[in-house]
Amino acid sequence: MTRDEALGRSIAANNRLVRKDAAIGLRAEHVSITTPDGRRIVDAVDLSVEPGERLAIVGPNGAGKTSLLRLFFGRLKPDAGRILLGDRDLARISLTERARMFAVVGQNDLPDLRMTLADYVDLGRIPHRGRVSAAADREIVERALDLLGLGAAAGRRLQMLSGGERQRAAIARALAQEPSILILDEPTNHLDPRARADMLETARHLRITVVAVLHDLTSVSPFADRVAVMQGGRLVAHDAPAAALDPKIVRNVFAMDCFPFTNPETGRSLLVFDTPALGGSNVARALVP
Ligand SMILES: Nc1ncnc2c1ncn2[C@@H]1O[C@H](COP(=O)(O)OP(=O)(O)OP(=O)(O)O)[C@@H](O)[C@H]1O
């Protein structure tokens, strides 16, 4: 059994973490956000995420990725356009219901570091409190911890965990919420390459809708079904990874070279990125006499 299959089986065995009504899609219809000084940080974006799909949002710094992500789960309201959750307008869905549907792992989710890991992951149960027995809540927390390989650390305080372990704890907390939609803002920050691959692989097996802002472009194609490329608040591509991260688009948007590559052992297609030849960037020009 490959590692990938083993993970799939472990997640299937822990499938209490995946809601039966998990297959919900999201749609942004012509959404915009304009700042008080008149800047369009999200500009007339139309974008759909199919039920159970994993969408990666990529783009350079300041492109509007986090703002678009926040529109998707209602943290920000659009000035124009609307967000649909399934066929319902998100603006008409109560905060309580949203809290049960969306689990969000943000960039700076620093809780009180004196909490134990188990208590922290139990926070994910708050939207469901009273709907199932306390024993069922505990079991779900344990499953979420086991799934992220943190079972043995359940009694440790967060301050005793490494950055990578805290990041996994945040994902465990999100999964304990049994969300329909998982929202990840740069989830692989602080993770070493193996932990990063594991985390994205875990998200890949969940069979729920996942929307993730990713900075590391090499993580995108193993993880995502589709990719939204943002630049200057606009959506400039929305397609399967190889098409959305086409070399021309990558060069225009990121000033990087992109080379498609197939892993000869697995047949999996991967994208390799490089900076353009010296002289292609202002920094390089400044450094080379
Ligand atoms: N509340 C706000 N008020 C004014 N400007 C904002 C606000 N939030 C974000 N911005 C600006 O909007 C633009 C897009 O920000 P956003 O955080 O969505 O980009 P991003 O693509 O996620 O960037 P990064 O990769 O650096 O995290 C930036 O220029 C940012 O400074």
From TrEMBL:
<feature type="domain" description="ABC transporter">
    <location>
        <begin position="26"/>
        <end position="257"/>
    </location>
</feature>
<dbReference type="InterPro" id="IPR003439">
    <property type="entry name" value="ABC_transporter-like_ATP-bd"/>
</dbReference>
<dbReference type="InterPro" id="IPR017871">
    <property type="entry name" value="ABC_transporter-like_CS"/>
</dbReference>
<dbReference type="Pfam" id="PF00005">
    <property type="entry name" value="ABC_tran"/>
</dbReference>
<protein>
    <submittedName>
        <fullName>ABC transporter ATP-binding protein</fullName>
    </submittedName>
</protein>
<dbReference type="GO" id="GO:0005524">
    <property type="term" value="F:ATP binding"/>
</dbReference>
<comment type="similarity">
    <text>Belongs to the ABC transporter superfamily.</text>
</comment>
<dbReference type="InterPro" id="IPR027417">
    <property type="entry name" value="P-loop_NTPase"/>
</dbReference>
<keyword id="KW-0547">Nucleotide-binding</keyword>
<dbReference type="InterPro" id="IPR003593">
    <property type="entry name" value="AAA+_ATPase"/>
</dbReference>
<keyword id="KW-0067">ATP-binding</keyword>
